[in-house]
Design a protein that fits this description.
125 residues, mainly alpha
Length: 125
């Protein structure tokens, strides 16, 4: 009986170690469209981790202090990163092809910016 208990514990431990790796091994990473600029306003890893804080800080400067600059503005992000398809049509914010929706769907994060802001570049048809 003791050897059976030991075998059971070892089997469960092995399963606990290997199953998470098997379960998450085939998760497809989002295909993030490239922006049209040469480089972003900050390194990619910084933007990925802090863009919400940067956008909220920019919003506060604009709304509360009247300071309007292009750096970290949502409009400039959209103008650079939301690209048309081969027919020249821009994706809707509901489409998984929209730059913002690509990562936010993957991360299961709700986007509320576009309840007020336009989700397409200034030059969109």
């Amino acid at each position: 009986m003791r050897s059976f208990s030991r075998l059971l514990v070892m089997t469960l431990a092995l399963a606990a170690i290997t199953l998470p790796g098997i379960t998450f091994a085939d998760v497809p990473f989002p295909d993030i469209p490239k922006g049209k600029g040469d480089k972003c306003v900050a390194p990619t890893d910084v933007i990925r981790q802090t863009h919400m804080h940067l956008l909220l800080h920019k919003r506060d400067l604009t709304m509360h202090e009247g300071i309007r600059t292009k750096k970290y503005s949502l409009r400039e992000c959209i103008n650079c990163h939301v690209q048309p398809d081969k027919d020249g049509n821009y994706p809707s914010i509901e489409s998984k092809k929209h730059f913002c929706k690509t990562c936010h769907s993957y991360a299961a994060v709700t986007i509320d910016c576009f309840q007020c802001h336009v989700a397409k570049p200034d030059d969109a048809k």
